[in-house]
Amino acid sequence: MKALAIAAVLALVSPAERLHDLFDREWQARLDESPQLSTSVGAHGADDRLASFSPETLERQDKMWRAFLSELDELDDEELSSEDRANAAIFRAQLEDRVAGYRFGAHEIPFNADSSFWAAFARLPYDAPLRSLEDYENYLSRLEQWPRVVDEQIAQMRRGLERGMTQPRAVLDGIEHSATSHIVKDPAESAFYTPFVELPAGIPEDHRAGLAAAARKEISRSIVPAYARLAEFLTGEYIPAARTSLAASELPDGAAYYAQRIKHFTTLDLTAEQIHQIGLAEVARIRTEMKEVIAEVGFEGSFDEFLTFLRTDPRFYAKTPEELLREASYIAKRMDGQLPALFKTLPRQPYTVEPVPASIAPKYTAGRYVPATRGGTQPGRYWVNTYGLDTRPLYNLEALSLHEAVPGHHLQGALNAELDDLPEFRRYSYLSAFGEGWGLYSEWLGLEAGFYTDPYSNFGRLTYEMWRACRLVVDTGVHAFGWTRQQVLDYLAANTALSLHEIRTETDRYISWPGQALAYKIGELKIRELRRRAEQALGARFDVREFHDAVLLQGSVPLPVLESNIDAFIEQQRGAGRE
Predict the structure, then answer these.
(1) Do 332 and 198 fall into the same domain?
(2) Does residue 346 have a pLDDT over 70?
C-alpha cells in the first residue's frame, strides 16, 4: 500500500517539478558537503566549517551522488521541455563526473603542477566574508580546522602512493614552495593574518585586541604546523615515491581514466587520435599565418631565429612588476570601452588587476581569472604573473588580458552568476570547453575590437592560438601516445613564442592535469564554427551583439547544447526577419 500511495502522489507531480526538486535537493547537498562552496555562492550558514575528506565521508558522498543519478534515470526526458532536457543533460554529466572521479580515485591526487588544495586555502583571507565579529570568529574557526583537512588529504595521498595513483615525479620539483611560504616565525607575517591588520568598522573596539591575539595564536598553533607537516610529507614521502611514468594511461585503469577526462573537458565523444589530428591540422594552419607576420616585419632569418629574437630582445619585456601590471590594466580598460559595441548584455560586477600571489607564482601560469564570491565586497580578479619578468613578454599581453578579463572569463563568469532564471547548480557550473573556448574566442574577438595593430602583438595572438593548438597535440601525445617531457618541451619551443620558462611550467601543467588542456581549442573551434553558421544563415540580419547574447545567456553549457542553442537562435532571427 505504501508503494501505491507514493506512486499516486508522484502521478500528481509533473516531470518538470520532480526534476527541479531533484536539482534543489542535490544543490543543497552539495552546499552541505562543501562549506567553502556554500560561502562562495553567498549561502553563509556554514561559514565556520571546512569540508571533510575522510574515507567515510567520500564513500558516503559517492553513494549519495549515485542515488541522485538513479532518481534522474527514473524521469522520462520525452516529457520535459527542450530547456529542461538541456538542464538534465548538464546535471547528469556533473553527477557522472563525480561518480567517475571517485571510482578512478582522483581524490588521491588533490593537486597539480600549479594548483592545489593548500594553495586554494590560502585564498581564505580574500574569499571569506569579513565584516562582522561573527565573520571573524568563523574565520578563526576555519583556521583551527585546517590541520584536520591537511591530515585527511595526506592520508588520501598516501593511499594513492600505495597503488600508483600519484602525480609524476618529473613535475614535482619545487611543488613544496607553495606550502613552505606559509611557514613563518612571526604569525603577523602570515598571509592568514592579513584580515587583522586593519579591522573593519563593524568590529567592536573591545574585541579588536582579542581577535588579533586569537589570530596570532591560531596561526602559530594550526596554520604553521599544518603547512610544515604538509611540506615535510611532500619532500620526505610523496616526491621520492611518486611514479616515474608520465601518462595518465599509466595510472590504475588509466586508459579509461584518460578517456573520461577527454569527455569531461571537451564535452564531446572524441578519441585521443581524433584530437591529435585536429591539433596537427591547426598547428599547420596557424604556422602559415605566423610566417606572414614575420614577412610583414621584414625579419631576415628562419622561424626559429625569429622566436629566439622575440624571447631575447629587451624591448618586449617590462622592467618592473608595476610596468607589467599597468600595461595589463590599460589593455583591459581599453577593451572595457569596446564592450557595448560587441555585447548587448553586460554584467554589473567589476574586476581588478592584481599580481599572482608570490607563494605560487614561480610555477604558475602567465595569468588567470579568479571569480568573486557572490554577495561579497570583492571584485573579480585578473591575476598577472610578475615573477620572472624576462619570461613575460609584452607581445602576448593583449591576448592574455582579453582571455582572462574582458571579454573573456570575467565577462562570461560574471554574467553566468547573474542569470537568475537558471537552476542554482547551473549558475555556478564551469564547463571548460565552453569557458576556455570562450576565452580563446575572446582573444580572436580582439581583432574586431581594434587590438593587435602592432604586428608583434598580432604574432603574440597567433602564438597564443598556436599554444592552444599545440595542447591538442602534446596532451594526447603524453597521455595516450607515449611522448616524453622533452618531446613536449621541444614541440612547444619550436612552434610558439612562449618563453622557455613558461614552456616548462605549461608542460608540467599538462602532464599533471590530463585532458584540461584540450578544452580551449576544441571549444573555440566550435564557437567560431557556430558564428560562421549564423553569419551565413542570417546574412545582413546577423547582429554580433545578439549572437553573443545567444552564446552567453544560457550559461556554461556542453558544446552539443550550445550548438542546439545557436540553431534555435538562427531560426528565431529568421522568423523575426519575416515578420
Answers:
(1) no
(2) yes
